[in-house]
Amino acid sequence: MGKAKDRTGPLARRPDNSAFKQQRLPAWSPMLTANTVLPFFYLLALMCLLLGVWLLLTVQSTQELKLDYTDLGSCSECYELRKNVSYAEQGCRCKVEFYIDQTFKGDVFFYYGLRNFHQNLRRYMDSRDDAQTVGRESQLKNPSTYCEPFIKDKDGVPIAPCGAVANSMFNDSFSFNYQTSSGHIMPVPLLRKGLTWYTDKNIKFRNPKTGNQTLAQVFEGTRQPLYWQKPVYDLDPSDPTNNGFINEDLIVWMREAAFPNFKKLYGILNRAGDPFTHGLPKGNYSIQISYNFPVQPFQGRKLVVLTTLTWFGGQNLFLPIAYLVTSSLILLMAVVLTVAWWKFGKDGKNMKE
Amino acid sequence: DDCLTQRMMSHPQLYIPGQLNLYFSKKAFFKCAIHSCYSSLVLFFIPYAALHDTLREDGKDAADYQSFALLTQTCLLFAVSIQLGLEMSYWTAVNTFFVLGSLAMYFVVTFTMYSNGMFLILPAAFPFIGTARNSLNQPNVWLTIILTSILCVLPVVTYRFLLIQLCPTINDKVRQARATPPPPPRRTRIRRTSSRRSGYAFSHTQGYGDLVTSGRFLRRPAVVSWSPGFPPVGRATSGFSPMGRSAGYSPTGRPQSSKVPDVEATSLQMYRAIKDPPL
What we know:
The structure holds 2 protein chains of 2 kinds.
Chain A: H1 34-60, E1 64-68, H2 75-82, E2 93-100, E3 104-105, E4 108-115, H3 122-126, H4 130-133, H5 137-140, H6 164-167, E5 173-179, E6 185-187, E7 190-191, H7 198-204, H8 215-218, H9 248-254, E8 262-269, E9 279-280, E10 283-290, E11 301-308, H10 318-345
Antiparallel strand pairs in A: 1-11, 2-10, 3-9, 4-8, 4-11, 5-6, 5-10, 7-8
Chain B: H1 5-10, H2 16-19, H3 26-51, H4 65-87, H5 93-113, H6 116-121, H7 131-135, H8 139-166, H9 170-179, H10 209-214, H11 267-275
């Protein structure tokens, strides 16, 4: 049998005698032998242990403060007020105080949190129009039918931005104050920009082309969602570049959370001036809250979260603990396998044919 | 690979698993179902708990729906690819290319679907824009993937290793015998009187004329000892294995007439040679 044959006769259609076609390729055949599996298990247990310890130390170095203000102190009156939908137009302000006993060193991030709000409900998530929020002219006054019933108001004027997601935007606002040691109350400066992903702010959300019109003129012929108090082109009066669909708070809200208990970035501490250059100093703080978002209809809760961060993220102890548990499980398995191998399989005792 | 004609003929016990329906029975299916349930729970709850209250390093959102979906998908792909790698008995270049290639293809497709270009063409169809870029550069995402893969794959490895140690199947024994040839024969077995240990006695098969004339046996490495006068023990097999197949390739060996240098005789043949009584 070789290649030297003519291509006629009964053996003419025989495949080539090459390594590829005759399935004779060089191969590595891994086998689960004791001297590969057991060291691997022990090594893996050691690595998981080291990783777990390192992550635990990293996470422990973060500081976090969570404050549930749904019905805390003077906010309980606002909570009662918001139970009744007919008072929705009426504003309500309340004040909440807290104390930080250890300085928050480094960058401090401020979040608002919600509990029991399912942004991951499918019909809710479908109720938006990405083509409208990317600034397409054709969709501005003619939004997608997925936004039903938040698509037109009772006069037939289209809504921009349409859909349930935009409609339910979180509209509480906070202003933080710090009481210095001399008793003087000073506001805590927050940066309210740079809260979003770069791709969200610059690509996913764009205002319709303005040309030589103002933003308000571009949005003429549409109206704001029914639950909003301000139109979309006036969401941030202090910063003209933060209006329209590219408003940072809107973008942060539109990125739906995966779980019913979530938090979203509200602001970052501005460490430019004293006494906040090294973080949040310890002491008494208070928050003035403009309480608008009703949570009683879905038995939810509202929180404010302050946290410092590391390269690993916030204070989530799951992964370090999971690694430590996995490491001990692997070690246990390795010991069991070693015993099994020693008693039964060593020197090929079990391989007698 | 393990249906090599040569091996099936010399080890008829390899047919037993098929006859007893060992590998495709209700019991096997049940084991499979248990493994799937366990993997599904791991593949959901580990990413859930890891992303539950977490943030990116710069404070921005990390626990959003799209990042969670991407993380779960990626964990699944890695767990499945590693499991597939374990199932493959023979890692040829082609196999390796396709397994690693499918993993690479997953990333290619994901990044393409989540790219700016696709989004700007059809915004409603590609809402996940930017998720891959922003999520996969977070270390805790990759640590979650590693943890999930470990938790999915190690029970399988443990179970198989235990099974090999405690009750090896005929397949395991045959593979072990192929991989670790038995110790070379004792050198005192030079008994010229039993020259019929060679296959020459069985003249109704093709025999080893070509082997002898090619001189191939002269180039064998010094695992086996032989003395001039009769061929090395390695070639002494029963007549049921007329073709000299090699051990290093899969699954069929070399045809007998091509001259391939420096190939040791099948370790299996050597194994059998020791066991055969002198003829």
